[in-house]
Write a structure and sequence with these properties.
CATH architecture: Sandwich
CATH class: Mainly Beta
CATH superfamily: Jelly Rolls
CATH topology: Jelly Rolls
Helix content: under 10%
Strand content: over 45%
Number of domains: 1
Strand order of the largest sheet: 1-20-17-22-15-13-14
Order of helices and strands: EEEEEEEEEEEEHEEEEEEEEEE
Number of helices: 1
Oligomer: single chain
Length: about 240
């Protein structure tokens, strides 16, 4: 097993007033040649957007973009005709493909919205752009690693993307022990601790820490406190 540890306080950080963002991987003004991507996982941003503020209309192409809110309400609009709101429990995906224009803003004036913005390199370029979102209950994630993103064409749960990648979310009680089995041989696994403390294959992780693991077919997971986890399995070569 090989691993790379990204402690929470080593992330890039940019506070624009209306947007407070932490970058696990190089993004915008933050660049670290050792932290450009983990396999097909390109961006993992931890964003807080002030009330009523947001990202103006801007373009993307040939990227799978996943948004996972943890509190508040994020309003989305795009040139495919979608106008949606995503909230805690929702997972949203956009396949940018040949190109999309979209914008996002905090729907509420009086409280921030917090969400993770994640980019994954696709395994097909210039696909027709697409949008999807689904809601998942707290009960589905309680002491369970629930698949919320999976490859297009599979029968797995969740929203689907153009990549052999799977995202799982779990809310684990203190002292709960479980395992995660690799879904595709030679993939890597990136674990991000949303809340709490957890031990993964003997490595202690705290809130907002990230751990990339390669050459391992299984994760041994023990929640040291009540813990919320995001597990991202991606190809290392793509």
């Amino acid at each position: 097993m090989k691993y790379i540890l990204h402690k929470a306080d080593t992330r890039g950080h940019a506070n624009h007033g209306w947007l407070d963002s932490y970058h696990t991987f190089s993004f915008a003004g933050y660049h670290d040649p050792e932290r450009v991507h983990f396999g097909a996982l390109r961006v993992l941003n931890d964003d807080t957007v002030a009330g009523g503020m947001g990202f103006g209309t801007h373009p993307h192409e040939n990227m799978e973009i996943i948004s996972i809110p943890t509190s508040g309400d994020l309003e989305h609009i795009d040139d495919m005709g979608n106008k949606q709101v995503i909230s805690q429990g929702d997972v949203q995906v956009m396949s940018a493909g040949t190109g999309i224009q979209h914008g996002e803003k905090n729907k509420n004036l009086n409280k921030p919205v917090k969400f993770f913005q994640i980019w994954v390199f696709p395994n097909q370029k210039d696909v027709t752009p697409r949008y999807d979102q689904k809601s998942f209950s707290a009960a589905e994630k309680h002491n369970n690693l629930l698949t919320v993103v999976s490859p297009i064409g599979t029968n797995d749960e969740g929203v689907q993307i153009h990549q052999n990648a799977w995202f799982s979310l779990g809310n684990l009680d203190k002292d709960y022990v479980t395992t995660y089995d690799l879904k595709k041989e030679k993939n890597g696994i990136y674990i991000f601790v949303i809340e709490g403390e957890v031990t993964i294959n003997g490595e202690k992780l705290n809130r907002r820490d990230g751990l990339g693991i390669t050459d391992s077919k299984k994760l041994e997971i023990k929640a040291d406190t009540d813990t919320e986890l995001l597990i991202i399995e991606v190809p290392l070569k793509f």
